[in-house]
Amino acid sequence: MATRPPLSLKARAVGYLSRREHSRAELARKLAPHAESPEQLEQLLDALERENWLSNQRFADSLVHRRGARYGTARVMQEAKTHKLGSEQLGELQDRLRATEAERAREVWRKRFGSPPATLEERAKQIRFMVARGFSRAVVGKVIEGADEMLGEDGDS
User: Fold this and answer.
1) Were 68 and a residue from 10, 64, 72, 129 both cysteine, which residue would form a disulfide, CB within 3.0 to 4.6 Å?
2) Which residues, 6+ apart, have CB-to-CB distance to 123 below 8 Å?
């Protein structure tokens, strides 16, 4: 069996990007061990951005799509900050997440618990779970307080 020649740096980058969106910082970290020099890596990343293969904006959209349905604003923002997005992109991302946080929290709560807490212990457990998922205490409080009304509207669904 013939061995394949090693992939070029660009082929490796395109391979990563074809599987999912990556931030510039994440792609640089993954490609660094394969680059001949930091300059070569920066030139490639610049070229990928120019050719629209690499986009931090698309990465941010992808992050919201992948994580937003399961996690709160705080948790998604924590992950976004590790990808070294610009402050403008982080601000825009945070605004988008906050605008839908209550709706997303209700859906996560409904899937996980589905019924209002009967005891203080259950209430504390539900709050801990939701806060650990990155939802704000204010939103969690509203979701749990509104559980009775929310279930009353839906009927027996």
Assistant:
1) 64
2) 117, 144
